[in-house]
Task: structure prediction
Amino acid sequence: MAVHAYIHFFSRDNQNYTETTTYEIPAFDFAAGQDLPTVAEIDAIQVAMFGPGGTGHKMSTSICYAYSVELVQDDPASVTGDGTVATAIAAKTRSGIGVTGNTDPFGNLEGEEIRIPGLNKASVIFDPVNPNSIATTTAIWTALRTALDAVGWVSDGGHTYSTAEMMESAVQFNGKRAPKRSR
Result:
């Protein structure tokens, strides 16, 4: 299984034209315990290309405002899903209500949303009172909470959730319940 690693440098000029420069670094093997490039190694590339601030002799006059490291696993250990649910429906759950996250118009914390694409409606339990919500206490949701907790999932709001805080509210649907149409 090859894990491809890429370093992306995001730059802009004084007219706010942006560009992304990408370098691929040698393939990784997680089982071998390889390390990602250090901040110092990445900064060395950035300084060599864009140089320190101000004018002078440097390769580029663009402003490097960010960089990212991307890992792409092109051969997962187990291919999951079968793509049989031909609907655009996705489920959104709310996590950590009252703990962190987005706020409603009244300033109350709503929690972070987690989107589940291609919802398999046959594997969830619908609320008999509200057909637009499903139970998040079943085994499939518990398994996802445990897996996210194992990798230390951090929300968009920067909060690290515990399994007790993840997906603790009813699910809201996003998308159509009809099959996708060919274009």
Summary: The chain has two domains: 3-73, 90-174. The two ends are 34 Å apart (CA to CA).
